[in-house]
Amino acid sequence: MARRNHRVAVLVLEGAKPLDVGIPAQVFSSRPSMPYEVRVCGAAPGLVTGGDGLAYHVADGLDALEQADTVFVPGYRDPAATEPPAAVVRALVGAHRRGARLAAISTGAFALAATGLLDGRKATTHWHYTKALAEQHPLVSVDENVLFVDEGDMLTSAGAASGIDLCLHLVRRDHGVGLSNHVARRLVAAPYRSGGQAQYVPRSVPEPLGDLFAGTREWALAHLAEPLTLETLAGVARVSARTFSRRFVEDTGYTPMQWVLRARVDLARELLERTDLGVEQIADRAGLGSGANLRLHFQRILGTSPTEYRHTFAAPAS
């Protein structure tokens, strides 16, 4: 008897982002080479208003989830201010109880979190919304760095392109590396990307996050290659170290030395992108001491190596 294809439902919510919808629909596309069947559905059959000027006409409603082995929730606009419909939440919970695995791309994680099924589990979402997800759902352990999180029957990914990583991971998990590589070649995508999403976050440290001690931060940015201590920074700010530390955290969300470390890593990122300097030279200019230290902090903060980062982001030669 022929083996039944794995049934995938792509649940399109109001404000759904086109790329997020298209990724699972294309990766798991119903074709002879793929052991999957895809149904694109909505809260109800008919027209669904999407994001970015597009709309979707879906043939199926929530009944599609009743037969699904995997349910994908693509990202949608304004997730922090938009609660998914109660019927959608019930359908997701019901599908999970029947044994379906649930997967979210980008801000679709908010819909999964609304079910309560992510409580006590790890999850991720687009870096712009990780803080909002953690604040709205404090029982969810939000990892802001990784490209995706696999919790077995609950999976979440970072921004849209990370949805490709998640989908290829599922194909690899279901049917092995061979089929996953076949799909990656069809998509002209990397079979596996190293690092986490932190490497894609814009450099934010040089832009003051508040008015307090802005001058001190600007001074520090001009002296990153020099030894910087809490006492040094407090002296520039002309306050006690204790006062400086407390008010700096209130102003930026970082301790002074956490902020300095991230500023140094950001400087190293820029040097990797724009120069041909070696890792040891960059570490020296950024105040990170040694290439080994630079590699350690890149891996811990960005989830990648300086070499991989340069390969991904270096400006093309003119």
Topology:
Layout: E1 6-12, H1 18-27, E2 36-42, E3 46-49, E4 55-58, E5 70-73, H2 86-97, E6 101-104, H3 109-114, E7 122-123, H4 130-136, E8 141-142, E9 148-150, E10 154-157, H5 160-175, H6 177-187, H7 214-221, H8 230-237, H9 241-252, H10 256-274, H11 279-285, H12 291-302, H13 306-313
Parallel strand pairs: 1-2, 1-5, 5-6, 6-10, 7-8
Antiparallel strand pairs: 3-4, 9-10
Helix pairs in contact: 1-5, 5-6, 7-8, 8-9, 10-11, 10-12, 11-12
Description of the structure:
By secondary structure, the chain is of the alpha/beta class. The protein is 43% helix and 13% strand. The chain has a 6-stranded mixed sheet, with helices on both faces. Strands 3-4 form a two-stranded antiparallel sheet. Strand 5, helix 2 and strand 6 form a beta-alpha-beta unit. The N and C termini lie far apart (60 Å). The model is unreliable at 204-210 (pLDDT under 50).
